[in-house]
């Protein structure tokens, strides 16, 4: 059972003019602003969640990533299976990460205060913000390619300026820079209008791409002829476990692609009216929507072989080869607009929350978003998505950071806290708060009211310990299940003091506890629980 507690009798304070948020009387100014405070009115329904995933799936990045799976040498049907298996995993993970934010009405950085501490949460927030900046730049670059295609089709004289070797700067051509900056400004404009404008934008952006992709697929199938479409495009012949290994890698690429939106999904689910609305939107927007997306991707890619003589996985390049100028302009602009929509929702909103979380009273949501926008240019994202190999490497690196943050948050919420969130304690600097640290750990080894061991990751003088504490939190939960008697004694062990003397003191203290309680190592068997001395 999920329980969410708010302080009784606490209403909105004078520090906020919005009736949509709750501000407790003991909320510390350094821990909240109007954008970070918990929502009271959550207005998004299942279609808004569905439209979010529709825009995410049908972005240029989604098609490019899905098409890159053919680089493994898999047949089309094998790529299709990998896409479906991967998206089912994504849906299950999305449901897990959505609940704490939807229940509390708070974004990811605030929810992270539970496992990391009210100050230590700045670490995962900053890491996630940097990851989102990378994704924001990548998606902006991919969408800008569509603008380049339109410009070259309408003004062929600009073609020399699309050559990086002749007219380029840090790996991007002159016309590429123009398209990138144009989209950069357009996205910033939509973002500046606020969440309501963003929600309305994505409600139609995703379906618009559906229409274009259906028309494009029908056109290619008509040009190729159904009898000429071969779904066995794999260039490498796998057998036995080799096929399984290649498909496993392809599936992991799908999950890695969605690792960013997954980690950011709490920022969206907090607006959901109910968890049922969120789950329904996830079901329609991920496995069902993605199945149709996968069919379009595989058939469209397979049809490019007989039509153009080679496999083309980038829909922008496919559209650019159409003879009709109007079709090129319409298709390319639709892809660009749809990618702008998901880029704002998935990769602009999250770093805005993250950077605002570091200094809520000094960095507003809009300021945090503009910091992310500037950073997206400095990382030169076109160099991160330049080929299939680089795409896979980029996804692996980004997922290696998002995976641990996702795992710690989900495990803490479901396994350690059993879906119990005290919202007001996420915003207080009181030493009595559940998510506040005293000298690195909660001094009481057991919760006297509940009779259970309780651990609070740290935040005060050294917030770097928050990551260590998050890992310890999961280890301790594993120990409690296998050897319950270990925990009361572990809870009172002090942190190691610097130097050899501190090590000796800690080992002596640990030997003393094991000698009195007869404790065994974690997982080696059960032991008799003992009380604290």
- List low-pLDDT spans: 1-17, 438-533
CATH architecture name of the largest domain: Orthogonal Bundle
The CATH topology of the largest domain is: Hydantoin permease
Terminal Cα span: 34 Å
Biased composition (Polar residues): 523-533
Region (Disordered): 438-465, 493-533
Transmembrane segments: 49-71, 77-98, 133-155, 175-192, 204-222, 242-263, 283-305, 325-346, 367-385, 397-416
Biased composition (Low complexity): 493-507
Walk me through this protein's architecture.
The two termini are 34 Å apart. The longest helix has 34 residues, at 275-308. This protein is an all-alpha fold. Helix 6 packs across helix 7 (174-192), helix 6 (122-154) runs antiparallel to helix 16 and helix 7 runs antiparallel to helix 15. The model is unreliable at 1-17 and 438-533 (pLDDT under 50). The chain has helices at 46-57, 60-68, 76-104, 108-111, 113-116, 122-154, 174-192, 195-224, 241-257, 259-269, 275-308, 315-320, 325-347, 349-358, 365-378, 388-416, 465-482, 486-490, 500-517, and strands spanning 3-5, 168-169, 172-173, 420-422, 446-447, 452-453. The protein has two domains: 46-416, Hydantoin permease, CATH 1.10.4160.10; 447-517, no CATH class. The protein is 61% helix and 3% strand. It has a two-stranded parallel ribbon with strand order 1-4. Strands 2-3 form a two-stranded antiparallel ribbon. The protein contains 19 helices and six strands. The chain is globular, with a radius of gyration of 26 Å. Residues 441-465 have a biased composition (Basic and acidic residues). Residues 493-507 have a biased composition (Low complexity). GO terms for molecular function: nucleobase transmembrane transporter activity. Residues 438-465, 493-533 are annotated as: Disordered. The chain crosses the membrane at residues 49-71, 77-98, 133-155, 175-192, 204-222, 242-263, 283-305, 325-346, 367-385, 397-416.
């Amino acid at each position: 059972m999920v329980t969410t507690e708010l302080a009784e009798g606490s209403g909105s304070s004078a520090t906020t003019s919005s009736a949509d948020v709750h501000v407790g009387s003991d909320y510390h100014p350094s821990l909240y602003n109007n954008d970070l405070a918990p929502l009271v009115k959550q207005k998004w329904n299942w279609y808004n969640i569905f439209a979010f995933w529709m825009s995410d799936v049908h972005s240029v990045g989604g098609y490019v990533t899905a098409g890159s799976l053919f680089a493994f040498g898999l047949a089309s049907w094998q790529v299709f299976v990998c896409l479906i298996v991967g998206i089912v995993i994504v849906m299950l993970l999305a449901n897990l990460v959505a609940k704490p934010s939807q229940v509390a009405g708070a974004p990811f950085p605030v929810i992270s205060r539970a496992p990391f501490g009210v100050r230590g949460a700045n670490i995962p927030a900053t890491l996630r913000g940097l990851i989102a900046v990378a994704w924001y730049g990548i998606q902006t670059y991919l969408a800008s390619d569509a603008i380049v295609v339109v410009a070259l089709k309408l003004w062929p004289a600009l073609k020399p300026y699309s050559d990086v070797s002749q007219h380029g700067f840090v790996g991007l051509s002159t016309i590429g820079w123009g398209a990138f900056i144009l989209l950069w400004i357009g996205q910033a404009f939509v973002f500046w209008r606020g969440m309501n404008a963003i929600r309305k934008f994505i409600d139609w952006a995703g379906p618009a791409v559906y229409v274009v992709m259906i028309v494009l697929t029908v056109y290619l199938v008509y040009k190729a002829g159904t009898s000429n479409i071969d779904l066995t495009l794999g260039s490498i012949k796998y057998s036995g476990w080799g096929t399984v290994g290649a498909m496993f890698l392809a599936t992991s690429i799908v999950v890695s692609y969605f690792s960013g939106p997954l980690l950011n999904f709490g920022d969206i689910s907090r607006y959901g009216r109910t968890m049922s609305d969120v789950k329904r939107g996830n079901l329609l927007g991920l496995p069902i929507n993605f199945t149709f997306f996968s069919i379009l991707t595989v058939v469209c890619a397979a049809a490019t072989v007989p039509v153009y003589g080679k496999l083309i996985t980038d829909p922008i390049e496919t559209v650019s080869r159409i003879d009709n100028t109007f079709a090129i302009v319409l298709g390319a602009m639709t892809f660009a607009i749809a990618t702008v929509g998901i880029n704002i929702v998935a990769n602009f909103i999250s770093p805005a929350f993250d950077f605002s979380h570091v200094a809520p009273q000094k960095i507003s949501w809009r300021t945090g978003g503009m910091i992310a926008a500037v950073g997206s240019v400095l990382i030169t994202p076109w160099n991160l998505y330049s080929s299939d190999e680089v795409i896979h490497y980029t996804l692996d690196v980004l997922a290696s950071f998002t995976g641990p943050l996702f795992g710690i948050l989900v495990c803490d919420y479901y396994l350690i806290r059993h879906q119990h969130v005290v919202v007001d304690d996420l915003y207080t600097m009181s030493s009595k708060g559940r998510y506040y640290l005293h000298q690195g750990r909660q001094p009481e080894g057991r919760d006297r009211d509940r009779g259970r061991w309780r651990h609070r990751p740290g935040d005060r003088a050294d917030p770097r310990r928050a990551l260590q504490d998050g890992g310890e939190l999961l280890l301790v939960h594993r120990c409690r299940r296998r050897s319950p008697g270990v925990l009361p004694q572990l809870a009172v062990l002090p942190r190691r003091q610097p130097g050899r003397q501190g090590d000796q003191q800690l080992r002596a203290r640990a030997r003393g506890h094991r000698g009195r309680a007869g404790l065994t190592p974690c997982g080696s068997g059960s032991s008799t629980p003992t009380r604290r001395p």
